[in-house]
Amino acid sequence: MIDPSPRHLAWLAPRFLLFFVLLLFAGQSLQAGPGQHAVASAHPLATAAAQEVLAAGGNAFDAAVAVTAALGVVEPQGSGLGGGGFFLLHRADDGYSVMVDARETAPAAAHPDLYLDADGEVIPGLSLDGPLAAGIPGMPAALGHLAANYGRLSLADSLGPAIRLAEEGLPVDATFLQMARFRLQALSDGADAARVFLREGELPEEGEAIVQPQLAATLRRIADRGPAGFYEGEIAQRLVEGVRAAGGIWTLEDLANYELVEREPVVLHYRGARIVSASPPSSGGIAIGQMLNILAAGGNGYGDDEVQRVHLLVEAMRRAYRDRALYLGDPDHVDVPVARLLSAEYASRLRADIDPDRATPSAELPLEAADAAAGPERSALDRESEQTTHFSVMDAEGNRVAATITLNYPFGSGFMPPGTGVLLNNEMDDFAARPGEPNVYGLIGFEANAIRPHRRPLSSMSPTFVETADRVAVLGTPGGSRIITMVLQGILAILDGAGAAEVVQARRFHHQYLPDRIEYETGALGSRVQLQLARRGHALSPQVRPFGNMQVVIWDRTHDRIEVASDPRGNGSAAVFTPATAPEQRGAP
Ligand code: DON
């Protein structure tokens, strides 16, 4: 029987309240999506392409097709049909997360000595310029796969904006010019790339239009026939003929046999968050996991002291990159000891080995089997970030895509097979050309990342999701070897509560085992911190050029808010818009 006495009501009332609050939260956690679309990419026209496709009823996966294809047209120095990348997907319906691995593969005729002369010395430039530097592209396969398996629109519909942009052309901007100047020689070496991107062998004027009718025709073929329009038939024929005539080793079988792979992403747990990131052949997720585990091994933190924080992070970076060099490679060809590298026991051992007061010289960290030459850097522009590109998308229903895509170096190999409009990558430089030989980002590798037929070169690209009790973040950045440490710092900032704008603006620092030094952006380390780090034995290397071009989407489920930000270091744009209404622009113009 219900007792109506005031005492009993006083007992009952808070319990009712609690019940309703719980009901409210339960309702909220059932809410799958933010109700708004959000896109952040490195180019306003690519962001606009995503908006167009989302407005036409597409989902985040259709938007990813549209952005990918558009970026290849409007940012030809960064990515394109002739390259590859990793797409991290999350499907809201069933919570399924997967990594679409569209990484390039080594041609069947590739071998460990591909870039060595008769004395076993690396031939300068051979893994960077011209068709011998190009792996078999994965991008056309990715476009078809996303549309066919995850999208709602046809491939042709999602490729529409890119085809239009390629046909109509777009004005040359300062970034394009800077990168084209840097790659002038490689672009001049072949008639087709020179015709599209140069004017009589010289750089075009800023504002002049770059029109790409041949690329539009190739995109149309893919729109009509799917990936087979690229990997088979007339385009494949032209690709192979062009590559071989200029000294490359591709065959029609290489193209016909290209296989995209769906892989389980790396899933990490840190400070109550679930972090989903790229699995091998990217080194990103594992290296991030190792670094977070090292932090967690000390009680989930690094204290309040800035010097101690940077010291510990740097020591964690050093150890993760040492292991990257030794153990990571294509999981279909080498045994990557994922479980061991990500085990708490291993992290505890690494943590115990860190001296809290002194830098560990990288030379003192064992590198079995290795006679690593911390060789000279191979170019003045080796760490620029207008090459490669990242975009983050979340649709109103909560489907999301984090994708980092690339040709590797600016304009890839600089080689465009005649009659295709497709600029080829130089991803082969991501292999170790020889044991311990630094690649263009100063990264070394050994047997696990040696050149072998059909292998995928080890990558640093790290598209990532961060999921906490109340927020979901989608992030990533270009930046060669620094991608991993930039994404790590992004994750930590998000876990510390930073908003999207704060995450992209934050100044960044980096250590990659070799060269043994802390590289940092202006403003990343205060003068006291610099002094203290130097006293602990760290070599400091301030960098003039900015690090990365991060694109972030954060959905705050608790406060029902979605935030986007495009890195101010780049020219990108980010937008949030309600389905079926005009987009509201945010972030950099
Ligand atoms: O896959 C990788 O790790 C490299 N090819 C990425 C290159 C890159 O990010 C260049 N950008 N600055």
Key descriptive features of the protein:
589 residues, alpha+beta, Glutamine Phosphoribosylpyrophosphate, subunit 1, domain 1, 8-stranded antiparallel sheet, 19 helices, disordered C terminus, binds 6-diazenyl-5-OXO-L-norleucine
Outline the fold blueprint:
Layout: H1 6-30, E1 37-41, H2 44-55, H3 60-74, E2 84-91, E3 96-102, H4 139-149, H5 155-168, E4 170-171, H6 174-182, H7 184-189, H8 191-197, E5 209-210, H9 213-225, H10 228-231, H11 233-245, H12 252-256, E6 261-263, E7 266-270, E8 273-277, H13 284-297, H14 306-327, H15 338-341, H16 344-353, E9 389-394, E10 400-406, E11 464-467, E12 471-475, H17 483-495, H18 500-505, E13 509-510, E14 518-521, H19 527-535, E15 540-543, E16 551-556, E17 561-566, E18 573-577, E19 584-586
Parallel strand pairs: 14-15
Antiparallel strand pairs: 1-9, 1-18, 2-3, 2-10, 3-6, 4-5, 7-8, 8-11, 9-10, 11-12, 12-16, 13-14, 16-17, 18-19
Helix pairs in contact: 2-3, 2-5, 3-4, 3-5, 5-9, 13-14, 13-16, 13-17, 14-19
6-diazenyl-5-OXO-L-norleucine is lined by residues 384-385, 387-388, 406, 408, 427, 430, 459-461, 478-480, 483.
